[in-house]
Design a protein that fits this description.
The protein contains 3 helices and 7 strands, in the order ββαβββααββ. It is an alpha+beta fold. Helix 2 crosses helix 3.
């Protein structure tokens, strides 16, 4: 099956990715954040951590990604300034700062909960966090030894 010209992962793979996305949402909600799945019926228009499942079979760099969605007022002000060509406007800086800081905090939370998470290394999606799975899913020899700051 293809989606937008790219091969789509099989349903078995997508089911595993959706379960990982649900785990990420639960962990972020347990931390007090209004996390939501992008494909949930009430997903559009929500603010907070937006959790997405990548359906791509070949090009997916991670099974799940997370992006911070700021409030509509902040997003609108940044978009208007950006479209007007004022990329140095305070609204654009606030939007970028809030998004970057929230992404860093989301990564720390996910690492502390045992997820393999990192910044997206993609100029097209610079605000995405990649989530690959849980460290417990790896054989012991491949588990990272990094302990996030503040972890026991």
């Amino acid at each position: 099956m293809t989606e937008l010209g790219y091969p789509r992962a099989c349903e078995e793979v997508l089911a595993v990715r959706r379960e990982l996305a649900d785990q990420v949402v639960r962990v972020l909600q347990d931390a007090g954040l209004p996390a939501f799945r992008e494909d949930a019926p009430d997903g559009p228009g929500q603010t907070g951590p937006r959790v997405m499942v990548d359906a791509d079979a070949e090009l997916a760099s991670a099974a799940v990604s997370v992006s911070w969605t700021p409030g509509s007022g902040m997003a609108r002000a940044a978009r208007e300034a950006f479209l007007a060509g004022d990329v140095d406007a305070p609204a654009v800086r606030r939007f970028a700062t809030a998004s970057t800081r929230m992404q860093g905090a989301l990564i720390v939370l996910l690492l502390a909960e045992g997820f393999l998470a990192t910044w997206e290394n993609d100029d097209m999606d610079p605000d995405h966090i990649q989530v690959f799975g849980c460290t417990s899913d790896l054989p012991p020899a491949l588990r990272p030894t990094f302990v996030p700051p503040g972890s026991p």
